[in-house]
Design brief:
Layout lengths: L1 H22 L4 H5 L13 H23 L3 H22 L3 H22 L4 H27 L1
Helix pairs in contact: 1-3, 1-4, 3-4, 3-6, 4-5, 5-6
Family: Belongs to the TspO/BZRP family.
GO biological process, one term: tetrapyrrole metabolic process
GO molecular function: kinase activity
C-alpha cells in the first residue's frame, strides 16, 4: 500500500506540475509564426505525449525514491525534472528557441545519465525513462531546427 501511495504522489505531482506549467506557457501566435521543419509534429500530439511521459517520469522517480533516496540516480532525477519544468517558460514564455536549447540539451544529458545510473538496479525505472529519452532527444533536434530556421 505504501508503494502504491508513493507512486501515486509522484505521478500526480509530476503530471500536475507539468500540466500547470504547460498551460501557463502556451505556444500561441509566436510559435505559430515560426518557420517549422518538415518533421514538426502536429500541435495536438504534444499534450497527450507529455501526459503519458509525466506519468512514467513520476513512476520512475517514486521507485528510485523508495529504493535509493540519497543516490546519484535520485539527484539526476530531480535535476532533469527542474530542467524539464524550466523548458516551457524558457522556450514559450521567453519566446526564445535559443534559451530553450540551452535548457533542453543539459536536460537530455541528465536523462541519459539517469538511465545509466539505474540500468543495473531498477529495470522498471529504466523502461519508464526510455520513451522519455527518445522524446526529449527528438525534441532537442526539433528545438535545434527551430533555432536554426528562425
Amino acid at each position: 500500500m505504501r508503494n502504491a501511495l508513493t507512486n501515486l504522489i509522484f505521478m500526480i505531482a509530476v503530471t500536475g506540475i507539468g500540466i500547470l506549467i504547460g498551460l501557463s506557457n502556451l505556444p500561441g501566435d509566436w510559435y505559430d509564426g515560426l518557420v517549422k521543419p518538415s518533421f514538426n509534429p502536429p500541435a495536438w500530439l504534444f499534450g497527450p505525449v507529455w501526459t503519458v511521459l509525466y506519468v512514467l517520469i513520476g513512476l520512475a522517480g517514486a521507485r528510485i525514491w523508495r529504493r535509493a533516496r540519497r543516490s546519484k540516480a535520485m539527484t539526476l532525477w530531480f535535476g532533469q525534472m527542474i530542467l524539464n519544468f524550466l523548458w516551457s517558460p524558457a522556450f514559450f514564455g521567453q519566446q526564445s528557441t535559443g534559451l530553450g536549447l540551452i535548457v533542453i540539451l543539459p536536460m537530455l544529458a541528465l536523462i541519459l545519465a539517469f538511465l545509466w545510473q539505474v540500468r543495473r538496479f531498477d529495470k522498471v525505472a529504466l523502461a519508464c525513462f526510455i520513451p522519455y529519452a527518445a522524446w526529449v532527444g527528438f525534441a532537442s533536434v526539433l528545438n535545434g531546427a527551430l533555432f536554426l530556421l528562425n
